[in-house]
Amino acid sequence: MTLTPADENFAARLRRTLPEAVFRPPEPRYLEEPRGRWSGQCGLLALPRTVEEVSTLVTAAAEARVPVVPYGGGTGLVGGQIMPEGPAPLIVSLERMAAIRGVYPQENLLIAEAGAVLADVQAAAQQADRLFPLSLAAEGTARIGGNLATNAGGTGVLRYGNARDLCLGLEAVLPDGRIWHGLSRLRKDNTGYDLRNLLIGAEGTLGIITAATLKLYPRPAGEGTALFVVPDPQAAIDLLALARDQMGEGVSAFELISGQGLHFLAEELPDIRQPFATPPEWCVLIEVGLARGLDPEAALAELFEAALERGFTSDGLIAQSEAQRAAFWSVREHIPVANRRVGAVSSHDISVPIGRIPEFIDKGGEVIAALGEFRLNCFGHLGDGNLHFNVFPAPGRSKEAHANQRDAIKRAVHDLVHAMEGSVSAEHGIGRLKVDDLTRYCDPVKLDAMRAIKAALDPAGIMNPGAVLRG
Q: What is the pTM assigned to this prediction?
């Protein structure tokens, strides 16, 4: 159906209904995405304070067939939060809906509005002596509604799962403006279709999440962090299996770091202290959280001895203080920052079965080498099979010099991922960047089902048009 822009007539109608919703021309931040791939457009920016105001906005948009773009923290990396083409949309920012509505420590639950910043949700859990384990680099600005809309991952997926696994219930406004009151505190509820999991990961194309019931966990009594040098990715996988054999679910994070990433860090961010005098070709960052009575440093030392004996590691560092733990994590968290400064020709957020990761890394290197002289930085969440496989220009060259190769590089990497039964979107979503990839690689039956669901819930196509599904 034909959509209409959020013009002055539409604005006047909304101002009569919601004079306090603050309609204004957007600041540049609402029209940009972190990688600079697109610039968005906007007819109106609305900042509702309640779910009822969101409902009024969406109802009016549905009646006028005005496109609606939900906006969280703007940290998405696939362009789901901006609309560069088509009629100028109504951007609905949830930033004024940031309350923690309730904390239930005995139930290990917390209810937060969608505009709550992830770091504030973590802090609210900590005040109740609980843990909300979703953790990612943008947690100081990302908002929980966007985290759920994209089914965000991060460093704790190995132990706690994605955002979807951390949510029990939702409150949301559907494309016709009706409010779904689904903020369940139940862990068992088999009453029909799971609308919660349909909206999570839908990137605002099926409705606007306004609040969520989130799972909390007991805080580990003791936490430990280590960096182990490994000879290759296969040894890293063997080390992961050994760590889980020894510590079970106590392994909270298991991150693969390549020597190229450490070299980029030394070049671009020399103030970040490197853990090893000579950057190893491969190393892993291990985080453990253990119950009371267990010593994480001793457990990591025992793991190192067992791994050394088996040839899974040749060197290692075990943090002896909170400052050292923070320093180890700082290395991992600043690798993407160094990557941005170098400038990637093409970045890939992919996952493959864990057992096939070594094969993928080897074949991926061969695929890229066949396309020219490039540098590869392969790193990421090895414990859940999610890698960031990023391609950079050779020293002395810029990413702009290879702009004409970006699509061919992405296609070659994604073809390999698909052939190895992987996913071309592990944790960042589809957005607008990967719409064609979804069409190319998605199971056709699944794709037809997705289109049928979209047509049933959003027949006018007003919700985040152009994201996830084309047309």
A: 0.94
